[in-house]
Amino acid sequence: MEQVIKKAVASARYFKNKKETDMWHCIWHDGKPYDYHLLLDNYGENDELSYEVDIYEVLPVTPDMFEKEKTEWGGLNDLRHLHTHTFPYNPNLFEQGEINE
User: Fold this and answer.
1) Calpha distance 92→83 (Å, rounded)
2) pLDDT, tens digit, 9 for 90 and up, residues 82-96
C-alpha cells in the first residue's frame, strides 16, 4: 500500500504544481485503480490554507470490472479511504484572486 500512496502523492504534487486543485484523478498500480481527490482548503487552528489529498481504493462493482482500465467507475460508495496527505500552501503558485473562485 505504501507504493500506491507514494504514487498518488507524486501525481497530486504534479497537478498541484500545475495549479490544478479541487480535482479527482485515478492512478493504476498492479492492475487496480486508485482514486484521489486533491483540494485546497482552510485547515488547522488558524484556518491556514493547505492542500489535502485523500486517496481511495476503488472497490469492484462487478467481478470483471478491472479487466480493462476504464476512466469511469462507480460512485463514492465504491471507494474505500486509504490515506490523507497534506501539502503546505505555496502562495507563489497562485496569483491574487485565484483562490476560492
Assistant:
1) 27
2) 999 998 887 777 655
